[in-house]
Amino acid sequence: MKYSAAAVLAAVAIISVALIANPTMLPQTVNAASFTVMLTDPPNVPDGTTLLSLTYSDVLLHVTYPNGTIEWLPVGASGTVNLLSLINMSQTIASTTIPVGSAIDKIQFTIADVDAVVKGTLYNVTALSNTLVVKVANGRVNETLSGVLIDFNPTLVQIEAADANGTLVYYYVLVPSATAIVIGDLNEEQVHVGTIVELDEDDIEELEEADEEFSNDVKVVSASLSVSGNVTSFSVTLKNEGNSVARVFGLTLNGDFNSTGTWQNSEDDVDEEIAENIHPETVPFKVNSSSLTPFFGPDHELNEEQEHDDENEETEHSAFILQPGQSITLTFSDVIALQPEEDSMEHPPMVVTPIVGGNYTLRVMGEGFQTFRVTATS
Known about the structure:
The protein contains 2 helices and 26 strands.
């Protein structure tokens, strides 16, 4: 027993000396951070809009943990927010726990449903992108109360059309623009989903810097717009001059357009003009590879399959991915036609064309936005 006790004491001494010489052998304690997902939203909406309700789901954080492990972390959150209530305010939409020292570089969420009330009428809104993946600026988590603040700055596009009887109808499309930053100095209440607080001036400035970064990185190199009969040809060249991936969700073209539409009078077979004074002010375009497609609502959605990256589960169809240094020319050359009725054989579509000599504002919608002016030629 005497020799055993001596052996134990010797072992303890050896281990103590080793720990003093190499303190990294001590068990490391990892602090957990309460991490929230918050949404703020200065939307661009038509006059008379009193409600813009967004239902979200499937919130995912792309996390790099302190040990180097990388994964998409599902937060398992869903809910509905009134975006018009979040001007200069933020609302907590999800909450989770991650280790301090982790880094968040992307956040993904699904737009499940959007509704708007415009001049007292409720409309269902079609989102140009149903799934958004947004880059997070300054994504290191250094505090035990931290969160990601998403600046979801969408444009609600109102599109006028005429049905088969010549009655004015409206379609609404939500074209998103979004940036995100990690912020600290949160209070305990902000951990709870549904909490609404006023934005801090420093956070507003940091969000503006993130928007400016996109504008500085993604350049509209050139654009052209021409009309030949009913055919509109539209081309825009983009270049990512930054050092990180940029995502483009879509484009809008704003200005004065011509529009014509006819319907067949079944009694005397006479075509009558019904849409000469009805026309959109903004035409949204969806990006599909290097092509642009006019996007007018649920009856005009692209028939496309969702593509998933098996490695990181990011939904690539939600945006065009522009790599650092990459240029892309997006083109459209066809008739811009709005078909309110499904039976296109019985009711021909309303044809929309730019006005030759007219000036149009091109807006690239992505992680931030970029604008460019273009004149329509013949």
